[in-house]
Amino acid sequence: MAASQASSDPSVLAGEEIRRQPRKPPFKYLVPLVYAPILPLIKITLKRQPVLRDRLFFLVLGGAFCHGSYLITDLYNVESK
Q1: HSE toward the beta carbon, residue 4, CA cutoff 13 A
Q2: Per-residue pLDDT reduced to its tens digit, 20-29
Q3: Is residue 33 part of a domain?
Q4: By the 8 A CB rule, do 64 and 35 touch?
Q5: How do residues 4-54 score in pLDDT, each as one tens digit?
Q6: In 3-state terms, what secondary structure has residue 37?
Q7: CB neighbours (10 Å) of residue 57?
Q8: What is the C-alpha to C-alpha distance for residues 42 and 55, in angstroms, rounded to an integer?
Q9: Domain span at 63
Q10: Which of 27, 49, 62, 80 is 20 to 30 A (C-alpha) from 21?
């Protein structure tokens, strides 16, 4: 009876070790920590060049929204499967 329980246990494999993959930080969720401080720095450092400041600010802000929508659609795709 003990042999049948051991063979049906998924954690015990015949002669193979179960290897855990090392956990890596989720970089796609950490990206906002990089571009969030950049937005005020753009406004502060480019005070004297308003055209460049506004274009760069909105470019970074648009990239942030694109990244956020990518993450949201990725989550919805996982849930729908």
Answers
A1: 1
A2: 888 887 888 8
A3: yes
A4: yes
A5: 555 555 555 555 667 788 888 788 888 888 888 999 999 999 999 999 999
A6: helix
A7: 16
A8: 10
A9: 24-80
A10: 80
